[in-house]
From TrEMBL, chain B:
InterPro entries: DUF211, MTH889-like_dom_sf
Name listed for the protein in its UniProt record: DUF211 domain-containing protein
Length: 194, 89
């Protein structure tokens, strides 16, 4: 059984596919909005060196990722142990070596990785225009604004992803998610910029 | 050579894997296995199923191991059909 098939099987028997999806979107959204907020803060503040912006944003992205991994692992580990205990009571047998036992050990790790990597990957994508600019590549828009555009695009895509799951029109769902990002950016502009 | 051709098992299993995946996994343990699974009773966390397995040479230990791996518990062997296929002479 391949690693992917095994992971799918474990998610199926624990019925945690929905949880993984939810964590991916929730923490991905956290990552996108945090980066958007930080970059908006730099835009409305006194001009700063790009490498410092990258340093600050990367620090926040790593912290978000570690927070996502640890919190999801601790909570999901407890949930899976409880679920396994309940199942063992119902089956009147030790399920430690069964697929359910394996799932109770691996599924929390899998969920933690998704929860932690979603904000990190999304943050790295948002920061990519800054790296390109530092590397000497000319962008059609200033790098901080390009990063804002990438953040808006990614929140739109997260909305589209949610729309596809819930069966809502992808465009409507994408616009709804983008609207949250636009409102966040506007609030920062009005409260921090003035 | 004595071969098991048919076996009927009474098994208690969790709801997951579902009946389809459960039967499929058991069928995959042999090259020519045919599996008929009947759900007899459903409780809050478990279900009692009857598994009828057909094959030319059923390996009971492999079947039992597959059932245990999926979290199932074998309650009883209800029926067995065994053929003696030793060639005379």
């Amino acid at each position: 059984m391949s690693l992917l098939t095994q992971a799918n099987f474990l998610l199926d028997i624990t019925r945690t596919r929905g949880i993984v999806r939810r964590y991916f979107v929730v923490n991905g959204f956290d990552g996108a909005l945090t980066m958007l907020g930080l970059i908006m803060g730099f835009i409305v503040s006194a001009p700063t060196d790009l490498s410092m912006v990258v340093g600050v944003c990367l620090g926040a992205a790593i912290a978000l990722s570690m927070s996502g991994i640890s919190s999801a692992y601790i909570s999901e580990s407890a949930e899976r142990k409880y679920a396994l205990g309940e199942l063992e009571k119902a089956m009147i047998s030790d399920l430690h070596n069964s697929a359910h036992g394996v799932a109770s050990r691996w599924v929390p790790l899998l969920i933690a990785l998704v929860n932690g990597l979603a904000p990190l990957v999304i943050s790295l994508l948002i920061l990519s225009p800054l790296w390109l600019s530092i590397a000497g590549i000319n962008l059609p828009v200033p790098p901080l604004y390009a990063a804002i555009l990438v953040a808006l695009l990614l929140t739109f895509l997260l909305g589209v992803f949610l729309g596809r799951i819930s069966g809502v029109t992808w465009l409507r769902s994408g616009i709804q998610a983008s609207l949250v990002a636009v409102i966040t950016a506007s609030l920062i502009y009005f409260f921090v910029g003035n | 050579m004595v071969n098991v051709k048919r076996i009927v098992l009474d098994v208690l299993k969790p709801h997951q894997p579902n009946a389809l995946d459960f039967a499929r996994t058991i069928a995959e343990t042999g090259v020519d296995y045919r599996v008929k699974l009947i759900v007899l009773e459903i409780d809050e966390n478990t279900e009692t199923v009857q598994i009828q397995l057909f094959g030319s040479e059923i390996d009971f230990n492999t079947i039992q191991s597959a059932i245990t791996n999926m979290g199932g518990s074998l309650h009883s062997i209800d029926e067995v059909e065994v053929h003696n296929e030793t060639v005379a002479g």
